[in-house]
Amino acid sequence: MVADEGGIIMYPVIDNPEQYKAAIYVRLSKEDEGKVDDVSESIKNQTALLLNYVKENNLSVYEIYTDDGYSGTTTDRPAFQRMLQDIEDKNVNMVITKDFSRLGRDRIAFGYYTEKYFPEHDVRYIAVADNYDNINGCNDQTAAFKSLMNEMHAAETSRKVANVKHAKQKEGLFIGGKAPYGYKKSPTNKNAIVIDEYAAGIVRHIFKLAIEGVSCHKIAMTLTEENIPTPAQYAKIKSKNDSPFSGKWSSERISEMLQNEVYIGNMVQGRVKKASYKSKKLLKLPREQWIVVENTHEAIIDKETFQKAGELIKSRTHTRHRTYDFPLKGIVFCKECGYPLATIKRTLSGGRPMLYFVCRTYQRFTQYHQCTCHCVRVEDVSAAVVSEVRRVCENYLGFLDTEKLTEKAQKQLQAELRKQGRDITALKTKLESIRMKIDSAYEDKLSGDIDNQIFQRIYAKLREEEATARTKLTELENNKKDSPSINEDKIKELVKIFIGSEDYTRELFVSLIERIELSENKELDIHFKFSELKIADCL
Fold first, then answer.
1. Residue 173 forms part of a structural domain
2. What is the pLDDT of residue 153?
């Protein structure tokens, strides 16, 4: 029993403390702002309460894991993920939190960890203030109910925050993190924007060229040649990757700016919304749902110039923005630069329309000699792919009919599986390294070695790296599961469908092919989804 100001509270008692290596997990999120002085919420007081608990129960603490400023609606928190890794490494077999909400406010995730993950990893979970101990199993219904209440609290908090933001937007108050290009946040009012003279000069230059009849493509090329930083460069936003587009203005960006009412003094917000309060995914909203408030700030462009530029844009046709449906759509890539190939439609001399593959990188940045054209008819590529896939499928069926896979095939398959294993290990090591870097940056922030702005920049970059690595790891682990014994029936069925088909749909291609690479000299490299087909391709 532990005495509290409100009386006597019964906390779970540990009879065999020597068996446990405890993890203390504490969390404070933005949804708890305004309650930081409350003993039940602050990081300091959570930690003190739990340290007192482990002291009274003679427990050994492996580590204190702290997530400060992370929502309970997601488990994507650095310290939490590090704790899970320590559980995987068998460094921890007990997790202690102040209450259920500190572990998380997502009911489904909470249930997964308390009902499946912790039991499967032989981890004892204790929520001190909720008097919960999973070793008892008798208060699971109470845990489920409180978890539901925590989730409802998170949903309600999210709704209130969204309503406040929406109300501010309708008032014309700026609530974004970074001001639109051409402006900067007011030094005296975080909800207002003021003109950034340097960037505003570039905006005026763009509009001047536009009303003179210069195309968006030509304007983008001119700005790049003049070494004018792109909006992302000017805002010091690092590119996600070293793409050929980095540091170069695009016609799409110019077109967007020429149609942005912010430059005539209107506040334009609410262009996107979150899929849900649990998701980080943003959904684009149609223009009619945007929140536009007129005359909220100083204009950079007069309305007459803005209207004229808009009319010129609408008068031009951009066939490259059209989309075409065909079986190989989305799976043909440039062999040289690695980007998806675009399609254009040309009319032949007899009036017949024809689709062509072209390199998107070359199309956008021809003047900078980025990649090459790769121009080839879509129907020619499709015919070549059908012929090659049919050959591979017939080879594979031949192996099955004789029930004799060659020794070479078996060795190749085993070698590929071993490589997959090495790649998986490397990615897991990389993920652990990223977690350590995140934790190190967080410690530097807490110690004052770096400010919050630098921390956020470092954290965002590391999170991007982590997301990329996790996606690749998932792909590799899924591929590893594709053993011959598991996939033989599935592959055989798909192969027979392909050979017997006269109508090759996109779904059929995608079921067998990971990606197709087209080189400048018109050579095709087909990457199959199944190891067995890869082997059949080389025999």
1. no
2. 55
- pLDDT of the residue at 142: 55
Name every residue whose Cβ is closer than 8 Å to that of residue 500 and which is 6 or more positions away in sequence: none
- One-character DSSP codes across 168-187: HHHTT----SSPPTTEEE-S
| Cα separation values, 77 from 25, 74, 113, 132, 432, Å | 12, 7, 15, 23, 14
As a whole number of angstroms, the distance between CA 167 and CA 452 comes to 28
Return the pLDDT at 33.
53
The total of other beta-carbon atoms located within 10 Å of residue 382's CB is: 17
Indicate the helix (H) or strand (E) that contains 331. Answer: none
Query: How would you list the strands of the sheet with 341-347, edge to edge?
Result: 341-347, 353-359, 376-377
CATH code where residue 193 lies: 3.90.1750
Residue 269: strand pairing partners: 291
Shared-domain flag, residues 91 and 20: yes
Q: How many CB atoms lie within 10 A of CB 434?
A: 22
Q: Is residue 498 part of a domain?
A: yes
What is the model's pTM? 0.42
Which residues constitute the domain of residue 301?
Answer: 183-316
H or E element, residue 231? helix 231-234
Taking only the tens place, the pLDDT of each residue in 491-508 is: 777 788 888 777 777 778
Identity of the amino acid at 120: E
* pLDDT in the model for residue 344: 84
Is 114 inside a domain boundary?
yes
> Can you state the percent helix, strand and coil of the chain, rounding each to 5?
50, 15, 35
122 with 30, same domain? Answer: yes
Burial string for 243-253 (b: 16+ CB within 10 Å, else e) reads ebbeebbbbeb
Question: Regarding beta strands 60-68 and 513-518, do their DSSP bridges make them parallel or antiparallel, or are they unpaired?
Answer: unpaired
Task: Of 161, 182, 157, give the one whose Cα is nearest residue 273.
Answer: 161
| Average pLDDT along the chain, 539 residues, taken 10 residues at a time | 45 82 88 48 85 91 90 80 91 92 74 80 88 68 52 58 75 85 91 92 93 85 87 73 63 87 90 59 76 91 90 62 69 83 80 84 64 84 89 77 51 67 79 76 69 74 79 71 53 78 78 86 84 65
Residues 200 and 150 in one domain: no
Domain for residue 495, yes or no? yes
Per-residue tokens: 411: 């060795």
Q: How far apart are CA 530 and CA 482, in angstroms?
A: 7
Residue in this structure with the two tokens 């989305």, named with its chain if needed: 330
Contact 389, 452 (CB under 8 A): no
| CATH number, domain with residue 146 | 3.40.50.1390
Residue 54 in tokens: 């482990």
